[in-house]
Specification:
269 residues; mainly alpha; 76% helix; 0% strand
């Protein structure tokens, strides 16, 4: 007998309930971002007024610009640092690689609140004025381990003699890295950069502790707006959801696409 693939089973019911529990609040926020009234419980009609208020508010636009600038700079710098570090560690002894890997894992496994307090105390000890610079440095710090963790498996899959072959063919060390190693690592680098951008874009805990002087990102702005009934928070949240969704789609699409392009180039070469 053929099994009915569409038969309702307890497992499917539990899975559906979990999906509803996870995604219903997100859909609720997105729907009420188009609500005509200020009500957060009753949808009275379709309107874009909260998006208009969001884009007409200097405070909101300043937070959005700060978020994008910090996320882009942190992504670029942490991707470069993480990639160079992983390539350098591949030439080091096992003891040093293990030590760096352990330090890298501490940042990943450490609760954000602990990392935030540590950075706050560090900047206070160094008498660094809290603001844009401290937020950027903090984001670079916690984004770099994610880049390293993403690039490392890709590097381990490469032929260890690839760099030596490039040097034997006339490349200097810098050319061997930029023209031979980095192109082979590009899927991992791309995925690491997208993860770093996502982590930086929606970070709240660390950003809240290390910023000051009127500098705030979208997460901090949403937190301050949540203390009172403000439907504009739904529009801002929807914007964040859309951007993160696009980033996650790119994370899953770009690396396989890059591999297919490389295979086609190898086949035509």
């Amino acid at each position: 007998m053929k099994k009915n693939k569409h038969r309702i089973t307890p497992g499917r019911v539990v899975l559906a309930a979990i999906l509803v529990f996870l995604y219903a609040p997100i859909l609720y926020t997105m729907v009420f971002s188009f609500n005509e009234s200020r009500s957060l419980t009753k949808f009275t009609g379709f309107s874009l007024q909260w998006y208009e208020k969001m884009f007409s508010s200097d405070t909101t636009m300043s937070a959005i610009v700060t978020t994008f600038v910090v996320a882009i700079l942190a992504t670029a710098i942490s991707t470069a640092i993480g990639t160079i570090t992983i390539i350098g560690l591949s030439r080091c002894n096992k003891l040093l690689r293990g030590a760096v890997s352990m330090v890298n894992d501490i940042v990943l496994m450490n609760p954000e609140i602990v990392t935030a307090i540590g950075l706050l105390m560090f900047f206070a000890t160094m008498t660094v004025r809290k603001g844009f610079l401290t937020m950027l440095l903090a984001h670079i710090m916690f984004c770099t381990p994610y880049v390293m963790l993403t690039v490392a498996p890709r590097l381990r899959s490469l032929d260890p003699n690839l760099a030596d072959a490039a040097l034997d063919l006339g490349c200097n060390p810098l050319q061997a890295i930029l023209k031979v190693i980095v192109p082979q690592l590009m899927p991992g680098i791309t995925a690491g950069a997208l993860i770093a951008f996502t982590m930086s874009f929606d970070d709240f805990v660390i950003s809240y502790f290390v910023t000051g002087n009127g500098v705030q990102n979208i997460s901090i702005l949403v937190y301050t707006m949540s203390k009172r009934v403000n439907p504009s928070i739904n529009a801002i949240s929807t914007l964040v959801i859309v951007i993160i969704t696009i980033a996650l789609i790119l994370i899953n699409v770009l690396p396989p696409l890059w591999q297919k392009l490389n295979k086609k180039k190898e086949e035509t070469a």
